[in-house]
Amino acid sequence: MPVKHIIVTKLFEFSGSNTHLKALISFFGPQNVLLILEDEGQVKFLEKVDESGLVRYKIKTNLCGYAHLQYRWTTNLKEAFRLLKSVFYIQLLSFRHGLADITVCAVEPEKHLYFFWAPFCKVYYILHTTPNKRYTSFTSYTCNRKLGKRKKIITVSQSNKSLISKNWEITEKKQTCVNVVYNCVTEPVDGVQLNTERYNAHPVCVITMGHVIGYKNPETWLKVAKVVTGARPKVIFIWLGNGPLLNQYQSEISNQKQIFFKGAVTNTDDYLKTAHIYYQPSFYETHGIAVVEAMSQSLPCVVSNVGGLPESVREDYNGYLVEPAAISQHAEAILKLVDNEHLRHSLGENAFTRFKENFSFEQFKTQLNSIYS
C-alpha cells in the first residue's frame, strides 16, 4: 500500500520529540506513514511512537546529515555528490509512493535541512530544539531560496521561531513560511475528575519530569527542594527521568527523606494525577512538553521565564514565572501554592482550561491541517 507521508526522524527511549512524533503519526494515520531511521538500534523504540503496529519503516544508514559546503573545492565536490545522492534517494522514495510528502523531524538543528532542494515533492522541516547560529551561508541560502508553499519549517513555540529566523538569517518575507505548532497531549483528559481526586491528599507533592541534565537546572531544583522541605516537612519533591547527572544527584540526596530522583518510569500519568504542583526550573526550553502534560492534569506550574515556557504558563493565572537561578523566588512561588489549597485548585483549573484552548490534540490537528493542506 502506498504511503502518503515519509518521515525522516530519530527515535529515543524517552524524549519530547517522541511524544510529538506520536501525535504527528496519529494526525496522519499510522497506515499512511513510512519512517526513515538512521540505524537498526532505533527500531526497539518504535512502539513508543506507534502503538498500532501499522507504521512501516526503512533503515537508511548513509543519508548525508548536514550540508556544510565550506571546505576546499575538492572536498566540497565530494560533499555535493553525497548531498545530491541523498536528495535523489528521498525524491525517488517519494515518487514510489505517489509523490508522498517528506517531513523531517529534527532534534539536531540543520540536519537534513538540504532536503528542501528535493524538486518535486512537498517538504516540511519540524525542529524541536534550539537552533544554533547557522553553520554556513548555505543554510540561509537554502531557507531564503526554497521556503514557500511547498517547503515549510515548523517549530514548537514563537520563541523558537524567532531564534530560527534570527540565527539562520531568514528574510522577513520568508519568515511567513516558518510556522508554530505547539506540543500537545493526544489522550483525552477529564480535568474536573482529576481535581476532585487529589486535593485532600498529603503530603503535598511537587513534581518535575525530564532528563537530569545541565540545561534542565537540577542544581537549582535541589537547592529549592531543600529550602521548601526544610520549611514544610509535609512536602515532597520528585524528579522523574534519566540523564547523565542522575547518579550524581541520587547520591546527593541519599540522606533526604522528602526529595527523590526516581529515574525513568513508565507510569508518569500516575505521578501527575497524585501530584499538586509542577516545577520546571530549566535554563531554556523550546516549549516544554512536560509542562503541557502537567497542565492537562490540572496542575499549577512554576516554571522559568525563558524560551517557550511563558507561552504555556501565564503569571498568576495557571502558575508562576521565575528567573532560572533565583532560588528564593522559586521557593516563594512554590510555598505560596503549598500553603494555599484553594489557590492550587484555582490555578490548576486554569491550567486545564489553557491546555484545552491551546495544547489539545484537536488544536494540534487544526494547526497542522492549515499547514499540510
Summarize the structure.
By secondary structure, this protein is of the alpha/beta class.
Features:
elongated; 2 domains; Rossmann fold; 38% helix; 373 residues; alpha/beta; 13 strands; 12 helices
CATH class of the largest domain: Alpha Beta
The CATH architecture term of the largest domain is 3-Layer(aba) Sandwich
Instruction: Find the CATH topology of the largest domain.
Output: Rossmann fold
Main structural class: alpha/beta
Kindly report the spatial arrangement of strands forming the biggest sheet.
3-2-1-4-5-6-7
GO molecular function: glycosyltransferase activity
Protein name: Glycosyltransferase family 4 protein
Domain Glycosyl transferase family: 205-352
InterPro entries: Glyco_trans_1
Describe this structure in words.
The protein has 373 residues and is an alpha/beta fold. It has 2 domains: 5-180, 3-Layer(aba) Sandwich (Rossmann fold); 191-358, Rossmann fold (3-Layer(aba) Sandwich), CATH 3.40.50. The chain has 12 helices and 13 strands. The chain has helices spanning 16-28, 73-96, 137-146, 158-167, 191-198, 218-231, 246-252, 268-274, 289-296, 327-338, 341-358, 361-372; strands at 5-8, 33-37, 56-59, 101-106, 123-127, 151-155, 178-180, 204-209, 235-240, 259-263, 277-280, 301-304, 319-322. The strands form 2 sheets. Strands 3-2-1-4-5-6-7 form a 7-stranded parallel β-sheet, with helices on both faces. The chain has a 6-stranded parallel β-sheet with strand order 10-9-8-11-12-13, sandwiched between helices.
